[in-house]
Amino acid sequence: MLDLQGMLPALTDGDVPRFRQLYQAIRQRILDGQLPADSRLPSSRHLASQLQISRNTVMQAYEQLLAEGYIRGATGAGTFVNSLASDSLQQSSTVLDSKATLPGLSQRGQRLSQLGRGGGNSQLILAPGIPELDTFPWTEWRRLLNQDIRRAPRRLANYGQPQGYLSLRQALADYLRESRGVRCDAAQVVVTSGAQQGIELVARLCLEPGDRVWVEDPGYIGARGGFIAADVQLQPMAVDDEGLIPDAQAAAPRLIYLTPSHQYPTGGTLPLARRLALIDLARQWNCWILEDDYDSEYRYEGRPLAAMQGLDPSGRVLYIGTLAKVMFPSLRLGYLVLPEHLVDSFCRYRSLVDYHAPLHTQAAAARFIASGNLLGHIRKMRQLYAARRDYLWQRLLPLVGSEQRCRLPEAGMHLCQRLPEVDDSALSQYLMTQGVGCRALSAHCLQSPARGLVMGYAGYREDEIDRGVSIVQQALEQRPWQR
Amino acid sequence: MLDLQGMLPALTDGDVPRFRQLYQAIRQRILDGQLPADSRLPSSRHLASQLQISRNTVMQAYEQLLAEGYIRGATGAGTFVNSLASDSLQQSSTVLDSKATLPGLSQRGQRLSQLGRGGGNSQLILAPGIPELDTFPWTEWRRLLNQDIRRAPRRLANYGQPQGYLSLRQALADYLRESRGVRCDAAQVVVTSGAQQGIELVARLCLEPGDRVWVEDPGYIGARGGFIAADVQLQPMAVDDEGLIPDAQAAAPRLIYLTPSHQYPTGGTLPLARRLALIDLARQWNCWILEDDYDSEYRYEGRPLAAMQGLDPSGRVLYIGTLAKVMFPSLRLGYLVLPEHLVDSFCRYRSLVDYHAPLHTQAAAARFIASGNLLGHIRKMRQLYAARRDYLWQRLLPLVGSEQRCRLPEAGMHLCQRLPEVDDSALSQYLMTQGVGCRALSAHCLQSPARGLVMGYAGYREDEIDRGVSIVQQALEQRPWQR
């Protein structure tokens, strides 16, 4: 008979029940070979008295070990350790703990993970793309969320449709038709888990590996990553103060990705003539246009230009938007507007990805939009953000000396401060350590030599803007950031 | 001067403001060429009087057209239609509306979308994998969801971490250690938007295109789709009443995917010896094991075997689970447990996919687990599902004549009724039209000749089970389903 008592640690009072502690301890001894095959365990009565615990505790532990196949036993005949699969068991907890022998990521996996950025720090100030979160009508939102869960929770608890909840698709279609001039109905809308997922879906489903894609340069980093992850070839296209410059002489792409309402990050609004020229090129080349309308709702000068999607009746323009900026980012809801003949295929593939976004959230968002709450919130935020834009711009002017280097943006949630002589990458890394989340303009560039800081104002109070600008100012004065 | 009045439709009272109706009508005439470049528009005063609307309405419409570049005007000099990008504009709304000339999905897109299943019908009865939704503690859930939104909504409103909300990762790690024998802490847990996303992430990041993957045959359809979408090669592995049969002679795979707690869909529980043999093979071949523990919480006979992940200290076993079955499917939350050195790469790639799951939902789920609500709910559901399992099984026995063809499942939410002589695919399609959501066993097969019905019981009352079984019985009696 084994001296099991000598091998076992003392049992403790705590969250883990005693029988489970005992089970785990014996199991470990079996797995690491201290209790070899066919050794006989003490009777439950004997072990209980040795350990001064109740016999019931021991019996529960033995039962679990029996159920899992670690031991065998028959009434009266005693309880024995089973011989397990192979003698390599002992190795398992000893020799092979080193990571060196483990498989790692695949080469594809290494490449894919290097494209991503990981998580941001939500405490940083002047980070681009962050809306004001204190002013969101939280009480109303809570009421809308509760409505379904109170009235008929089951109705929205089961699996839903990959295309998205019908009421939300209807509310989005109405909103996009009326506010953005998008030609669509609910059947063309696919609700996504954020705009990034929309880019991913389009890249995988509309493009072949190796296809050429026009991207703005400077341009949106997330889109670039999404395209490269889908193994397509990026063709950087120059951008001026009005946005992407169409080039009829360039090699024909399979897709043109752009942010026509408010070029990210440089801020231009694509004029009608360029929009039409691009639609014309897309028709000649029989290629797609992917219109990313990420923050078009916040326009301060002039009225918004209607979406390109509405200009092209042939259905070549795919349209992407998000609720992250007009509601809040952690909601994780975006949308695609597609020609109807593509919708079913997108939904089928979506069922392999994440199926659909949470339904209670979708339903609440639908009512938030349909009830007019969204438009009311946007109207208020447009005023607030315009004032913050003016404030940041005024504070920056003395700093950089010239309006040429920082146009007052007509729209959006950030401005683009040009600093052509500065190593913006080193600067932004330093600013990050000081709690300031401006992004380096160069990080958005492929071939463009543009340098500067992309500075968000929408989500920050005047005192935060003051603090952020002071830190930027000190950084520029104290350290040599020249390239 | 043009007779604009004759071209325009009557303005209506409704949701769309009159100025916008007018703007849209004129814009359309410009885009389709009825109003050619350089034609002069009537003055706002003149048009207002013609249309019998206020002059202000006309001025607003003109302003919008000016802002968007459709017309030009100078005070006193009149208002003119702009020449737009090209003469192909006229074509846009006329000739090219045909879908035939549009680009379609890429070949990759066609292939990917064919792998998916699209949406299910949540009204069907006897569908596998659907939990009971009426008994979920909705009031408590609502309270937990409201807590954060009431107290500190802003805190959870911004972008979060791709790895998932820390409290949820902690709660999951505690739960998995204690209830499932998984060796992990919060740093190893990645919160996913459902288990399917976990499979997708592992397939893309741990496997190279062309790598060989063992899948159970019959096996889970979603996993198979996720792997094929990542361009890997499936090696179907036979399954018996105890689950996957390890084959040391087979060509070495790069990953072994399996459902050891409760083989999907045939129901076996993988014995300890096979678990250890597989871990041993994985060590020899230096390959991954992906353990999908989708419904292990519902075990009715014996105690649950601890997870394979906990048997392998070397970190070769990646572990996937979901909250869809123990909470509710539309929540869209699942998790991965990874060796720590992989976590950062997974999170970086995740930022290109959907960034993270909604934060308020994650926070509420964290408290639901940590407060013990989850375990309490599971305990209740285990009793309920055991009774429903017995009920369905009793009702089926007379129907199929033999216990051989339908083992009473030890665990889970469905049973697997063998019908070797039946065209189960045609049968299940017919049943679908009758409101019964059983799945054909053959749909889960690659090389296996198994035929039958996968029938869910967890989410259905006894009267629903009665109705479902009657429909199945009638179908089997009335129609020849022989292959």
Assembly type: homodimer
Q: Any idea of the CATH topology of the largest domain in chain A?
A: Aspartate Aminotransferase, domain 2
Q: Span from first to last CA of chain A? A: 77 Å
> How helical, in percent, are the residues of chain A?
40-55%
Fraction of residues in β-strands of chain A: 5-15%
Strand arrangement within the widest β-sheet of chain A reads: 4-11-10-9-8-5-6-7
Tell me the greatest interface. A-B, 133 and 133 residues
Calculate the mean pLDDT score of chain A and round it: 90
SSE pattern of chain A, N- to C-terminal: HHEHHEEHHHHEHEHEEEHEEEHHHEHEEH
Domain module tally of chain A? 3
Number of helices, counting only DSSP H or I runs of 4 residues or more of chain A: 16
Tell me, briefly, the overall form of chain A: elongated
> What is the number of beta strands of chain A?
14
Major β-sheet annotation of chain A: 8 strands, mixed
Structural class by SSE content of chain A = alpha/beta
Radius of gyration of chain A: 30 Å
Q: Could you list the spans of chain A in which at least 5 consecutive residues all have pLDDT below 50?
A: 86-99
Second-tier CATH architecture of the largest domain in chain A? 3-Layer(aba) Sandwich
CATH class of the largest domain in chain A: Alpha Beta
The CATH homologous superfamily of the largest domain in chain A is termed: Type I PLP-dependent aspartate aminotransferase-like (Major domain)
Protein name (chains A, B): HTH gntR-type domain-containing protein
Domain HTH gntR-type (chains A, B): 16-84
Family (chains A, B): In the C-terminal section; belongs to the class-I pyridoxal-phosphate-dependent aminotransferase family.
Pfam family, one (chains A, B): GntR
